[in-house]
Each structure stands twice: as structure tokens, then as C-alpha cells.
Amino acid sequence: MLERNEVTxxxxxxxxxxxxxxxxxxxxxxxMVDSKAEVANSFLYSIVLKSCASLGNLQMGRFIHGRISYxxxxxxxxxxxxLIDMYVKCGNLKDAQKAFCDISVPNSTxxxxxxxxxxxxxxxxxxxxxxxTMHQKGIKLDDFTFPCxxxxxxxxxxxxxxxxxxxxxxxxxxxxxxxxxxxLIDMYSNCRQMIEAVKLFNQYADCKLSTSGSLAVLNSMLSGYVxxxxxxxxxxxxxxxxxxxxxxxxxxxxxxxKVCINLNNLRLGHQVHALAxxxxxxxxYIIGSILVDFYVKSGRVSYALWLFQRLPIKDIIAWSCxxxxxxKIGLNSLAFALxxxxxxxxxxxxxxxxxxxxxxxxxxAGLTSGKQVHAFCIxxxxxxxxxIVTSLVDMYSKCGEIEDGLALFNHISERDSVLWTxxxxxxxxxxxxxxxxxxxxxxxxxxxxxxxxxxLGVLSACKHxxxxxxxxxxxxxxxxxxxxxxxxxxxxxIIGLLGQAGFFEExxxxxxxxxxxxxxIVWRSLLVACVTHKRTEMVDLIAKRLLATSADDPSVYVTLxxxxxxxxxxxxxxxxxxxxKEVGLxxxxxxxxxxxx
Length: 597
What we know:
- By secondary structure, the protein is an all-alpha fold.
- It contains 34 helices and no strands.
- It has helices at 6-18, 22-35, 42-55, 58-70, 77-89, 93-102, 108-121, 124-136, 145-156, 159-172, 178-190, 194-202, 211-227, 231-243, 250-263, 266-278, 285-297, 301-310, 316-328, 332-344, 351-363, 368-380, 386-398, 402-411, 417-429, 433-445, 452-465, 468-480, 488-500, 504-513, 520-532, 536-549, 554-566, 570-583.
- α6 runs antiparallel to α7 (108-121), α15 runs parallel beside α17 and α31 (520-532) runs parallel beside α33.
- The longest helix is centred in the middle third of the chain and has 17 residues, at 211-227.
């Protein structure tokens, strides 16, 4: 074309942009600017901004913003809305807010575009502020604004504001909008107001919603039941949806599978899986990931692996479900192998997966795999994550490398109660009892409150080190200072500690006053102490208690027989071995170690 004017340039650029060739449209606009033949109008600026938004071209978008400001076109609300939309879609909310403030007369579209940006990025408090400003300026909220406002109330648990918006919706006549109706149910459900949510759901039949609208409302109610662990109600609703002949979607099936996981109901899970196959969702990456999680938690790991391998898109959730599931049920080598597959494929490994892999390494016999994961954590910057540090400390202590665990613990400045507990238990487990006690005292001084596991760890350390006074002091402080009622395990540690120190009368007195019945473990610990202190007169008394509580346990007879033999009570040993033959034989124990790697 020999002669080009404003109309021809605008037509061509608009054509390219509207037909999915935004990059070509921007190139043509750049050519127009360089030619200095024509000056763009507001409509053309809007088109170019649309191209920038679709391509994420923030640089060109800012160039257009400069042109708009130079020509003082801020009065053009439609153009400014395009500018805000460009910044929002490029993820630059700061400049989007500035552009919004420059609009002479913002309309509902202006507000909604900015609200959508805050909604997308999860800035709920800021979104509530914008909605309040919109209301104060007398601009009516619409079918787009209401769901966003209710989502913010839901996320921030702002029930009072949510109820006010509910009243506004009723007065405005938007109550029968499927999106608004669903958002109301979501808001009440997430605020744990299930009575209100169900009451609202029961009213939805009065609204003449489309099939898709009805399914959206049903899915919201189903999600509410699942999130509030009302699994029976959720099953009834799933049955209602299926019986109605309504076509279920990915959202319905995902919630149905979550119910199966909550109830650990394999039969129902198979039925939902079949429904997913019929509706073509079995290999959907969302449904597929939840199915993998379901089968792993149901103990069907081989089937979960088969399904996982069939997924065309394996997202991080699918990998995470399979790895964490394997680690939880003790398939540690498989969990580590899957982690190595992720690394080999160049996939992103997040700190949740790393935590599961470290837990698996803690249960493996060798330390090589754990150190490999630790190296990866350092390279990936995960070493400062609290959950990762705690897992690493636990791994090193379980593998007998407490020095590495202590070094890692001392390197971390911000520690939580879980990390303190981990290093205390680790020190006690690896013969560093006095250090465990010192760390416990440092924990108290730092203002952290110990829990049952912390106290059990430090009491166990006192037991192994024979620190009677320190152990008794900590035991007595459990209720008085920390508000924790001792469990049988705590009593066992103190009784064992007293027995080892030769305080049998005190140990027996504690057994008599504790709110639990002494079990085999308690009596065996005292039996070992009798051997140490040559308390022959106590052996027969403890033997009677042991046989009274565990008469059918062959190992009890073996233990007593060995104790009699050690203490030279041969007559008692012979009688017991004769009785043992009538009860059962000792089974050989098994253990394993890693000899290479």
C-alpha cells in the first residue's frame, strides 16, 4: 500500500492482534512510530496494550503509558482500563494501582480489573480495600465483584463482612447468579458456618440456574462438606449428583476422591475411579494426582505406580504424593529412587518432597543417600527451610552422625520447638546425654515451650546417663511448669532411671501411684536393674508381675531364664525353661546393615 493513514495502520495492527499474532501487531506499531507518519489515537493505544498484555511485554506497555501521559489522555477511561489490564496481566500491580489512581473518572470495569489483579496474586486484604472504596464512591458491585469480595472474606475468615455482602447481594438481585451463589456457599463453608451454607444450598432450587450453574453450586456445597470433614453428607451429595444424570466435572471427581481418602474407603474409591474413566478424567493431571495419592494411602502402591506411569502430565503434586506416600509406609528405597528420577529428568523438587525424601533416608541403613540429598538442599537454597533443617538433623542423629546434626543445628539462628526437640532426642539417642540436657535448658531459656516428645527425649537422656536428680526435677516440672500430664512412657523413663541407680523402693512407690498399669517394658527395665545391683530378692517378685501380665509371651520366659542364669539361680532357671517349652520357642531375630556405599 503506497498511502497509509491512521485508519489503515489501526486496521492492520488490530487484525494481527485479534487473530493471535500480537507480536506482529507490536512490530507493525513500532514501524509506524519509527516512520513518524501518523500519531496513534486512543483506540490504537488500547489495541497495542492488549498485545502487550497477551505477550507479557511490560517494556512496550510502559512505552505506551508514557505516550498516554505525554498526550494527557488519562480522561479516557476505556484507554486507562486497557492500561491497568496490561499491568495486571504482566503481574505489575504497583504500576496498575498507580494507573488506576490517574484515571479521572474510574468506572466499575476499572475497579474490577484491579480487583482481578489482587485476586490473582492472592492479596485479599488489598482487594477488600478496593471493594470498599468502590462501594464508598457509589459504584455498584456486580456479578464479577461479588465472587471476588466473598473469596476475600472466605480467605481472611471475615464472616461479619461476608454477611453484609450477602445482604447487599439479596438487595441487588444477584442472588440467583450461579457464580455469586457458589461463592456465598464457599464463604460460609470456609468460615465453618455449615448450617448457613446448607440452608443457602437448599434454597438454590428456587433459582432457575443452567445445568453448568447447578453443577457449580453442587460442587461448592460438596467442597464445603469435604473441607469440614462431613464425609457422610458429602457421599450423599455425590450420590445425588450421579443419580440425577448430571455430567460430573474434574472438580466434582476430585472432591469425591478426597472423601474416599478421608474415609480410607477403597471400594468407594474404585467406584469414583470408574466414574473418572467413563467421563474421560482418569489421566487428567489433577484427578490422576489425587488417584495416585488415594492408592498409595490405601496401601496399593503397585497400582499407584502403574497409574502414575500412565499419566501424560506428571505435575509436582503427583510426584509429591507418590514419594511422600512411599516414605510414610516404609518403602524408603522406592521413595529415594523416585526422587533421583525427578533430578535426572530436570524436574523442580520442592521442600515438601525433599522433607519426605530425607525422612526416607533416615530409615535407610546407609548415610550416603542422605548426604546426597543434603548437598542438593545446599545447592537449591533449601537448607534454611525449618522443615528441611529439622529433617536433616533427625536423619543425621538416626544414622549415628550426631556431630553433623549438631553442626547444622548450631548454624541455624531461627529455631522452632520441633528443631529443638529433634536435636535433644538425637543427642540422647547417640550417647550425648549431658549435651541433650544442656540443649534442653537452652531451649527453656530461649522461651520455647517443650512438648511431650521433648520431655520424653530429655528424660530418656537422663535415664541413659544416670542423672537421677536432674531426671526427677524435670519429671516433677512437667505438670507444674509446662502443664503436661506424664504418659506411661515418661513414667517408664523415671522408673528405669530409679532402678538403674538402685532406688528400688522409690521405683516401686512410683509404680503404685502412677495412673497406668505397669506393662512388660516397665518390669523388664527393673529386672535388668536387679541384675546390675545383685538384688536377688527382687527378681522373684518382678518375675511374678511379669508372668501375671504376659503369661503367653515366650520372650518373657527367655528373659527371666537368662536373668536367673546370670544371677546363679539355677534351680529357678531350670524350672522356667521347662515351663517355656509348653508356652513356645524363641524365634530368631533379624537385622540388616548396608556394607557398601
